[in-house]
Write a structure and sequence with these properties.
By secondary structure, the protein is an all-alpha fold. The protein contains three helices and no strands. It has helices at residues 2-13, 17-42, 52-87. Helix 1 packs antiparallel against helix 3 (52-87) and helix 2 runs antiparallel to helix 3 (52-87). The mean pLDDT is 78.
């Protein structure tokens, strides 16, 4: 019974690559709006003048980095968690 529960836990905790990607994209899209609004509010306080086009290019660069970082970290922890529970059989 204990082994069955562990296997169920692994199945419930496991996240597919597609789910990881969806989570990462959602996280990054929320981060996009947060970053864009904060850049528009904070840059002028530091006398940093950036056009909206440049602001969007900056956002694009950091968004791509964030998406890749988020996905890799999610997959790493998903693998680590699964390995932890499969070892404890």
């Amino acid at each position: 019974m204990k082994t069955i529960l562990k296997l169920l836990m692994i199945e419930l905790m496991a996240q597919t690559k597609k789910q990881s990607l969806i989570e990462s994209i959602t996280n990054v899209l929320i981060g996009f709006w947060t970053a864009l609004v904060s850049q528009l509010l904070i840059f002028p306080l530091f006398d940093i003048e950036v056009t909206i086009q440049d602001n969007l290019l900056i956002w694009l660069y950091f968004t791509l980095i964030s998406l890749i970082r988020s996905y890799i970290i999610r997959r790493y922890f998903n693998t680590k968690t699964n390995a932890h529970y499969t070892r404890k059989k």
